[in-house]
Specification:
It is built from 12 helices and 13 strands. The chain has helices at residues 3-25, 48-51, 69-86, 112-120, 172-186, 233-245, 262-291, 293-315, 323-352, 357-389, 392-423, 447-459, and strands at 28-29, 36-37, 53-62, 93-97, 101-107, 125-128, 140-143, 147-156, 162-170, 196-201, 210-213, 222-226, 250-260. A 4-stranded antiparallel β-sheet has the order 4-5-3-13. Strands 7-6-10-11 form a 4-stranded antiparallel β-sheet. It has a 3-stranded antiparallel β-sheet with strand order 8-9-12. Strand 4 and strand 5 form a beta hairpin. It is elongated and about 110 Å long.
């Protein structure tokens, strides 16, 4: 590799690094649009302790339709996640707490009534073929427990006009029930009248909340509800939430409700950023002082590490940055530097033994690979276990530590290696610039001698010499 080629490589890498830094921290208005690119750092999802928000805990009790409480709680947990996601709270977390509780955390939210009002008074869905009256209750063919999913949507009606409504998707058992119910309604089978299916929410009495006109049997397990009361997107969403809240397999009782100030979160984030910046500056200074030009190359690789870290933090959907997560990032930052330290120390040992600079670099990276891999892979396994078994705070620490460890291995074994090899044509005669020294009495090993020395152990059998004194016998 020529000096000119190496210079061009560093120029291109510098340009890439500058572009990466700009994309990471700088908001950029997109020309000819109203969209502003916020940068990787500003697009990272913040957890409850940094962004502020709501934290609520519900206790789950069995209902008359609950057969297995543990399975019912798991199903309710999944439905809550889906509801919050559909409501626009994609950064919320829903997790089991203990044996019969569910904790919900919604970053940046301010009003529990706005989010969880549908849980306070859940209304179970009922479908009948007759209207309720004061003398008798109509037969119920489908309840909310037969519902798999409900969401608000819209479609064009027969007049090609936009029509808001709600789609109800049924479970496998509910699909069969709904097919039978729609067949009865379509055929006008007693006690059906006027091909109508009546919908009640809460109790089967008084006037129905809505009615479906059924002209044919529906066998695909879903239906679209529209009409009076579903005039816009918000009313359709409220309708869907009421139906979904009545489809829970457990009774939810609010036992804890707390609001976390966004001011405290901003202060914690600010202090975390300051701590990280101080750590980075100190690390870079020490690396330059200890390893010279090699330390500067390690600092260059560290810049790529930080850009990649910010990119993946905002790109991975389930990652939320929390205060413990910041601690995981700072810890993984130190481990990224550790990998470079191991490499450079091995290079120094190889050079001190008499090898030329380029041979010392080659052998140093080869000797450093397995210590770096072994030390990091154990931390990877630990992070995975913490993420699987830990609470939400521990998960935040584990995911950033895991991501940081993987990126640190990549930067030290790939990026640093590339930078050092590109550096050698620029300086192969002044090892002291990379803090490489050897004793004056050490004879420099030629390249062919180095190859022979590395193969001596495998190619030559060991010679056994036995020395003994005179035989006194």
């Amino acid at each position: 590799m020529t000096k000119k080629r190496s210079i061009w490589k560093f120029v291109l890498l510098s340009i890439v690094a500058v572009i990466g830094i700009v994309l990471s921290v700088c908001p950029i208005p997109v020309p000819f649009t109203n969209y502003t690119y916020n940068g990787f750092a500003n697009s990272i999802s913040l957890g409850l302790d940094l962004a502020g928000g709501l934290s609520v805990v519900y206790e789950c009790d069995a209902t008359e339709n609950t057969q297995d409480l543990n399975s019912a709680i798991s199903a309710t947990e999944a439905r809550l996640k889906e509801i919050l996601y559909n409501e626009g709270y994609s950064e919320s977390t829903v997790a089991r707490q203990g044996s019969n509780r569910i904790r919900i955390e919604v970053p940046s939210a301010k009003d529990t009534d706005e989010i969880f009002s549908f849980l306070e008074n859940p209304k179970t869905l009922y479908m009948t073929l007759e209207k309720a009256n004061g003398t008798n209750s109509p037969e119920v063919f489908i309840t909310g427990y037969d519902v798999a999913n409900v969401y608000a949507t819209y479609q064009n009606n027969e007049n090609n006009e936009l029509q808001h409504g709600v789609v109800i998707q049924f479970t496998d058992e509910g699909k069969t029930k709904f097919a039978n119910l729609t067949q009865m309604a379509a055929n006008n089978t007693a006690p059906a009248s006027e091909n109508l299916i009546h919908i009640y929410l809460g109790e089967v009495k008084g006037d129905p909340w809505g009615s479906l006109t059924c002209k044919s049997q529906i066998t695909d397990g879903s239906t679209f509800i529209s009409g009076e009361g579903l005039n816009d997107k918000e009313s359709a969403k409220r309708y869907a939430l009421n139906i979904m809240s009545g489809a829970f397999s457990v009774k939810l009782t609010l036992i804890e409700n707390s609001v976390i100030s966004a001011t405290l979160g901003r202060d914690a984030l600010l202090y975390g950023i300051i701590a990280g910046a101080v750590a980075i500056v100190l690390v870079m200074a020490i690396m330059w002082w200890r390893y010279g030009d090699f330390g500067l190359l390690a600092n260059f690789a560290l810049v790529f590490y930080m850009i990649l870290m910010l990119f993946f933090l905002q790109a991975i959907p389930f990652v939320q940055l929390t205060l413990p997560g910041i601690a995981g990032i700072i810890l993984s930052l130190g481990m990224a530097v550790d990998g470079n330290i191991i490499i450079f120390e091995r290079i120094k040992e190889e050079y001190a033994s008499g090898k030329k600079m380029h041979l010392a670099v080659k052998s140093g990276f080869k000797r450093a690979f397995w210590p770096i891999f072994d030390s990091n892979i154990t931390t990877v396994f630990t992070s995975i276990i913490l993420y699987i078994l830990g609470t939400s705070a521990i998960k935040g620490f584990a995911i950033t530590l895991l991501l940081g460890i993987l990126l640190s291995m990549f930067t030290s074994l790939v990026i640093t290696r590339f930078l050092v090899k590109s550096y050698l044509p620029l300086n192969s005669t002044k090892p002291h610039k990379a803090r490489l020294y050897r004793d004056e009495n050490v004879v420099e090993i030629k390249e062919e001698d180095s190859n022979v020395a590395s193969n001596d152990v495998s190619e030559k059998p060991a010679e056994i010499v036995v020395e003994g004194g005179e035989n006194n016998d």
